[in-house]
Amino acid sequence: MGWSSATRIWKFEAPRDPSSGDYPDGMAYAPDVHKLYVSDEHGGTDTVIDVRTNTRVATIPLGGEVGNTQYDPVSRHIFANVQTRKQLVEIDPVTDKVIGRTDLPGAEGNHGLYIDPATHLAFIACEDNNKLIVVNLDDKRVVSTFDVAKEPDVLAFDRSLGWLYVAGESGEVSVFHVQGRAVTLLATGPLGPNAHVVAVDEATHRAYFPLKSLEGKPRLRITEPRQ
Fold this sequence. Notes:
This protein is 0% helix and 56% strand. It is mainly β. The protein folds into two domains: 21-147, 7 Propeller (Methylamine Dehydrogenase, Chain H); 151-227. The protein has a four-stranded antiparallel beta sheet, with no helix packed on it. A hairpin with a 4-residue loop joins β7 (87-92) and β8 (97-103). The model is unreliable at 1-20 (pLDDT under 50). This is YVTN family beta-propeller protein.
C-alpha cells in the first residue's frame, strides 16, 4: 500500500536553546490543550510543543533528570518521573506549571511510567534498583513495590487481559496481572538482548519486542499468552 496523496510529513526543528537539553526520552499528549510534552533526561525539563502551530511554547524545569512522561486522562494532567529527586511530578497543562511532587520511597532511577485510567494507578519502573513501584494517584500514595526484570525501561498494558509488561535493558521481561487494584507478579524471564521496548496489541494479546541485535541482525520478537 502506498502513501496517500493527503499524507503530510512534518519536521520540527526547535531553536537551539541550552534550556531544552540534549537527551529527549519520552512523550505525552494532552488532547484538551493540543500540547505535546517531551521529557529531556539530561536537560531536566519537559519541553512543551503546541501541535497546532508546531512550535515550542514552554520549557518546564523539573529540578533533576527526567525519565518518561505520561498523560493522565482522569485528572487531565501530565506526570513525569524525576529520577534524581525520586519523585513523580504533576504538571497542569493549562498553565504549564508544576502543581505537585510525590516522593517515591525506595525508588532508584524511577524512569519508566505507565498510568492506567481505569484503576488510576501509576506504574513506575526504577532502572537503578530493578523495582516496580505502584502509586495510587487518587491520594498520591505508594501502595506496593515489586522486584522486576533488571534495568527496567518501557511498560505496556493489555487492559482486557489485565497483563502489565515491564521490559528491561538486560533482556529480561516481567509480567504482572492487574485485577482492579490488586497487582500480582506472574513471571520474570529472559526474552532477548536489549529487549527494553514493548508494545501490546489488545485485540490479539500479542506483545512485540524490537531487539537491537539477535544473531547479528535486528529482530522483532512476538509473544502471545498460552491458551
